[in-house]
Amino acid sequence: MSARDFMPFRTLGGGSEERLAGSIDGSETFLAGEPLVMDSTVGRLTEASSDPPTIFGISAEGALDADGNSRAVWNTITFYGIGRDQVYKTKNFATDGSGTQATTISTAIIGDYGGLIKASGDWFFDTGAENKICEVLSIEDAQGRNVGDINTLTEGGAVWIFFRFIL
């Protein structure tokens, strides 16, 4: 499992991300940057299952603090809202619906829809997901430049997929 699979970038208007607060159960172990859903039976946030049809937000912090203690004792955790104008970024991109990291990325995916797949403990933006809840906005390199068709294996892999939720 790695933290920060999905991170907020900015809003489409250039503003900063929306941070919200919610409660969690003491058994949660999700990391920062993972998708959250609302457990309506208890009214608490929980990590989404793979390929969720909707989400409530992206965790801004892990369920456990640096000492491994549950943040549930404080009864709140912060997360990022998923408004249509909030842009997120990830390096985890797949096209097979199973969360297998893609080895090539083409600008042809800009405008494509995808979902969120969890594979081997990591979350991926996956255009092959059944539940299409996100839209690809751009592909950029580590310096923030839009890129053309690239092969992430031969060109170093420092590529970000920028997307928004379409819920």
Q: How does this model look, in words?
A:
It is globular, with a radius of gyration of 16 Å. Residues 152-156 have low confidence and may be disordered. Strand 3 (35-39) and strand 4 (44-47) form a beta hairpin. The chain is 0% helix and 38% strand. With 167 residues, it is mostly beta strands. It folds into two domains: 7-80, Head decoration protein D (Virus Head Decoration Protein, Chain: A); 86-165, no CATH class.
| Major pleated sheet | 7 strands, mixed
Number of helices: 0
Number of strands: 14
Radius of gyration equals 16 Å
List the helices and strands in order.
Answer: EEEEEEEEEEEEEE
Helix percentage range? under 10%
Q: Low-confidence runs (pLDDT<50, min 5 residues)?
A: 152-156
Spatial order of the strands forming the largest sheet: 1-7-14-12-10-11-8
Q: How many domains, in number, for the residues?
A: 2
What distance lies between the first and last C-alpha atoms, to the nearest angstrom?
26 Å
Any chance you could write out the topology, listing elements then pairs?
Layout (H helix, E strand, L loop, with lengths): L6 E5 L7 E4 L12 E5 L4 E4 L9 E3 L17 E4 L5 E5 L2 E2 L9 E2 L7 E7 L2 E5 L7 E8 L8 E2 L7 E7 L2
Parallel strand pairs: 8-11
Antiparallel strand pairs: 1-7, 2-6, 3-4, 3-5, 5-6, 7-14, 9-13, 10-11, 10-12, 12-14
Short description, anyone?
This protein is 0% helix and 38% strand. The chain has two domains: 7-80, Head decoration protein D (Virus Head Decoration Protein, Chain: A, Beta Barrel), CATH 2.40.300.10; 86-165, no CATH class.
